Protein: ATP-dependent RNA helicase
Amino acid sequence: LKGNVFKALEEDAAEEGTDVSAWKDLDLSSNILSALSKMGFSTPTPIQAAAIPEILAGHDVVGKASTGSGKTLAFGIPILENWIELCGELDEDESKESRPPTALVLSPTRELAHQLTQHITTLCKGLSNSPYVTTVTGGLSVQKQQRQLSKADIIIGTPGRLWEVMSSSNTLTDSFRQIKFLVVDEADRLLTEGHFKEAEQILNALDRQQDADEDDDQHSPTRQTLVFSATFAKGLQQKLAGKGKQGLMDGQESMEY
Ligand code: ADP
Ligand code: MG
Structure:
């Protein structure tokens, strides 16, 4: 978290909290609205209603909401909104190759990574310009994944395989450093299922360049960090707090809804 306003969101106390009860309150693009309607999702879930405006406003978010509460689209929708905005700005002749990826999503397991990809891809079907979404997990050759990654806009993967791919290609790692959204999904499981070491290596690799950019006084891309979890046990809070220059869970503005 690099000085972005940080919001901690919990789904508890949802009833009396937010005023947002409809997709139209969230200021979304018409393509997204019609895709949601085609998916049969008539209203946002509480975590979606709370997280989407914060992410669209450029804040880092730590969101806690139980399993099945719609956390995927809580970060998936703002990432796609950002993508739509980017497409409007892109030059006609800006080639796919030269475009850095928009988002990197860390998922604890292969199954969850594929579910995320499917869910986000379904939403993409409504867009006039679909991002290239790719899943990076064990099962495919590293070479094949590197080729897919070189043209990816949204990357969803398990830390183990992502780190394997990143540590074998400086070019890819450099392009990952330009992402606008870093998502740590199901963070509790990422910790308990033993992938935290690789996740930490990935975060460190991404951070090194940002620090270097700041030192060089160059333009440093602003990256939003989004952490979602069903629970925030003490161990996870400590791990996350140890990551940032500033603590992740302590002393920051927190919002309940
Ligand atoms: P979580 O990550 O919180 O466990 P998911 O994002 O996987 O939950 O969503 C759980 C289920 O809810 C999925 O099947 C998804 O299609 C569905 N879902 C997501 N958002 C909505 C919504 N706004 N309205 C209805 N169903 C939704
Ligand atoms: Mg989930």
Q: What stands out?
A: The first helix runs from residue 30 to 38.
